[in-house]
Amino acid sequence: MNRRVLLKSRPVGVPQKEHFEIVETPVPTAREGEFVVRNAFLAVEPAMRGWVNAVGNYSEPVGIGEVMRSFAAGEIVESRHPDYSVGEQVMGMFGWQDHAVSDGRSVVRRVARDPDLPLSTSLGVLGLNGITAYFGLLEVAPPKSGEAVVVSTAAGAVGSCVGQIAKIMGCRAVGIAGGQPKVALCRDVFGFDAAIDYKADGDLGRALKDACPAGIDVYFDNTSGPISDAVLGQLNVGARVAICGTASVASWDPVPLGPRVERHLLVKRARMQGFLVLDYSRRYGEAIDQLSRWVKDGRIAYREEYLDGIEAAPDAIAGLYRGENLGRRLIRLS
Amino acid sequence: MNRRVLLKSRPVGVPQKEHFEIVETPVPTAREGEFVVRNAFLAVEPAMRGWVNAVGNYSEPVGIGEVMRSFAAGEIVESRHPDYSVGEQVMGMFGWQDHAVSDGRSVVRRVARDPDLPLSTSLGVLGLNGITAYFGLLEVAPPKSGEAVVVSTAAGAVGSCVGQIAKIMGCRAVGIAGGQPKVALCRDVFGFDAAIDYKADGDLGRALKDACPAGIDVYFDNTSGPISDAVLGQLNVGARVAICGTASVASWDPVPLGPRVERHLLVKRARMQGFLVLDYSRRYGEAIDQLSRWVKDGRIAYREEYLDGIEAAPDAIAGLYRGENLGRRLIRLS
Q: Is residue B197 predicted with pLDDT exceeding 90?
């Protein structure tokens, strides 16, 4: 049978366990021009909140009764598609289910078998997380050697990669994360020069000054909110801010208030720019090639954590927002 | 005698008449390596508020008892400097006074005698106002033909130039200004496709939708505040925002609150960037050459208004903030 996680009702804010249900249907078969993937890993990520909320986003929200949209990685077990063969590994938008049918358009990338780069990495450091870090840092907020680069949610799949690319570029990398285990990850595993626990350090401004005595040149923003306000106050002239996510803001309806940024940006001749990794889709190969080399050379470390079995899926997004994960969260199917 | 306007006391916010005093001293003479300018026009501009306030800005505030810092334009009447000759016209940071001594470092540009381009234009459309519009639009928020460009304080010396450059670039130019006389200037003299009176149009969002039915691609921001909030809500994907000034915000101490911008910038993959025209100082010549051709060709119109006599100076900045000027405000000396 094919177990599938359906969206049962539409949440406001973070989707909880009760917004999903698991159903079983027969394993699908491929028609002409299609293939069937047996998923080995399902992704769980903060952006999924937006995919199920009713308010406008990049794409239409997941419909009630539909399989939860998600990235997944697996092996092709049946194919009637000329370009895809049984046994090939692929990563794509296959949804929270054991088996998915695709005509190829939902594929993000093929994944070569390489003992050093397991299939799961295609959903993390060698997937959209790594690619997001790569283009967000190097194209949207390019750092120069010697500059100070600050990233929020620094222990996360994107943030940890941003910090390590910053180090490769010769920068001082400073991470902001919540809780000592994440701060320790940043320092000890990901090699940040400094990591700040925003939950423990009451005065984030002070902690940032200590960590970046010469000011902040690049900020990779995954949070918005008071964390970003503290960072923006310490930008250097010519600073660049890449806006990647707004994890710390519970709701944008209505738009919450914060300190106006115009004066900072003006006096510092600084730039804030939002970006969406999908806009770089034609260049994913370039990022994956470079990131793969860095991972193989040991210059980029990554952490993954697995929830075993599809039964863990319905509560998995809420868990992310509870901050309970250490490393890229994936659901591992047997 | 040399009449000079001194800063008498430090204002909080907009400087008023009582913060200045006029004194008379002997006309200065040049030492070796210096020359004396007799000013014909003194500039009055919103940025002067920042130059006299105590809070941090681009440069040190004007000291109490010092001549008010300002741009001015005049003719060299004495020279012991090898590069400057008597009779030459120059524009520079000569201060609110009849005569100024310079060693050349305070000169922004020389002004050739051209009956089509009077000296006063060196303080407006062919001075830092025009140069600000030129680089701010074309370099910081470059528009593509067919796009919608919105500018605030659109009837002003910078805004009117932005709108006209946008038209030259093949864009739809939409101005926001306060009051019918300014709106009429935008439409009838500066050729904006549409002009919105933010004071009369209660629902600025509605007015912007009517003026930009296909959304806003470029915003040249001279105001910050609720005007900018309304514009930011209607940005298109890939929009560019150049932050040039914050005229609508009375004080930045403490930083006022406004709707957070991160979500807009993220969903629209949009960019906000502050800039300072002084950072382009090595390229002023390029801007002046181009702007001069456009003015001579009748493609850029400008308006100047003169306050006669240095006695008008002390109240002139406050008058700008009262919104009483129509056109680039200059003090004309006899």
A: yes
